């Protein structure tokens, strides 16, 4: 491609709204342009990168036995109501009506559509197992679209679905997809981790894993063991109890009764620390949550944070929310900061670390007062005890116990789920087994954010000059920079080199523009093609400069050697 004809305008400064490196560079280098908040046009350079990602995905999905289909983006709302997810997605669903007032949604995902399709196509165990996939545009009405392609309202996604006759079959399908995802991300040159994760709004009865591209701008925190391969999203990372610690501590009979003392205007953990000269681990923190129309008190130590996902799982709710000031007053009879578990007429959920305390300081349930010497199991019930807190960095690994957990930020780029019969039962996707009896299909779901993957690769691969694409994803394999269009020898060498490379099937971008050398170097650095061939003063000797973008090295080669080097690199 001759750069003089390429639709790619580079920008010297990034727009003010672009905060992350990938967003800034993809805009500045002419890969994308924003149409509206969270909605982008892919210019030719960006589309070429997407195509290369898609090609890798196609190859690995095919190798894993998946067949490609394409489903509609516009879906009948009735399907979403049938699966009972219409209200779960809520305002994230983009809704519309046709001229007959029939309600539709723009699909954020396709579990309903694929289940509806398969229930009409397959009715016998003889046609299972089956795995299908598509690459399709998805739509979610994000409250705050941000970070460019990482959180948009319209995005490109690969979603795959497996259908099996047994859980063992689902396990096999899951492993195939899991392994395929590893190959995809490795081929894309990503530094990533697969972590235990929550299934979220997709749901399901089995496990799930998220694939996280490691990055400081990632919205998710993951705990990774320093020794074994354990890795989990913070919301799922388990706390390992110290060896020999009893689940319920034995209560001694010689402990004095809890003592109430005056703490005027002292509401926070920090204030208690400063005024009483105590450590936060001596404090029992009581938080009020609302779920399923009821209020619950959750107890954690003062140095710990409540893990709302774990609380949700303990009480079997679909979601929970921290009670506001008025709700706390109504539920606990006292304002926030003085709520405590003693005498509280609510269900009390106790974190294991609190249950193991000899005694602690807690709110007295009365304004401007706290209690010291509060004993778990004596002064409040230990009926509901479990792991209800976030792990801390440096804690022991819950899997091997030998290593410690280190925290990393991650960008979610893929997610695999064991759905089980969540959708097949609700939508009637059944088959006749070998005994002639009807049974629901066992499903799995596997997604990769294609456009998000592009942004994640850009975030991991850049320097102060601009992008540095891995060879497998680069929009072009080689960038020829003609230093002077007025120099006949340079022009002849550049044209000859361009013809040779394109005849070999090597994707080549040829900067034939009548621009200063400095402009061409800056644009080349921004665009980030892995290899640049500089045709300049050495052209008279039939030589060029070969520049490795990532290593920032240059060497002079004759034209034939340069072509051979490029061809060898691509092999």
From TrEMBL:
**Annotated Gene Ontology MF terms?**
ligase activity
Going by the record, the broad EC class of this enzyme is ligase
Please indicate which superkingdom the organism of origin belongs to: Bacteria
- List its EC numbers: 6.1.1.15
Q: Name one Pfam family in it.
A: tRNA_edit
Asked if the Swiss-Prot or TrEMBL record annotates the protein with the keyword Glycoprotein, the reply is no
| Domain Aminoacyl-transfer RNA synthetases class-II family profile span(s) in chain numbering | 38-470
Location(s), subcellular: Cytoplasm
Enumerate the UniProt keywords alphabetically.
Aminoacyl-tRNA synthetase, ATP-binding, Cytoplasm, Ligase, Nucleotide-binding, Protein biosynthesis
Instruction: Enumerate the Gene3D superfamilies for this protein.
Output: Anticodon-binding domain, Bira Bifunctional Protein, Domain 2, YbaK/aminoacyl-tRNA synthetase-associated domain
Q: How does it assemble?
A: Homodimer.
Q: Which PANTHER family match?
A: MITOCHONDRIAL RIBOSOME PROTEIN L39/PROLYL-TRNA LIGASE FAMILY MEMBER (PTHR42753), PROLINE--TRNA LIGASE (PTHR42753:SF2)
In UniProt terms, what function does this protein have?
Catalyzes the attachment of proline to tRNA(Pro) in a two-step reaction: proline is first activated by ATP to form Pro-AMP and then transferred to the acceptor end of tRNA(Pro). As ProRS can inadvertently accommodate and process non-cognate amino acids such as alanine and cysteine, to avoid such errors it has two additional distinct editing activities against alanine. One activity is designated as 'pretransfer' editing and involves the tRNA(Pro)-independent hydrolysis of activated Ala-AMP.
The protein's name: Proline--tRNA ligase
Q: Which organism is it from?
A: Paenibacillus borealis
Q: Which gene encodes it?
A: proS
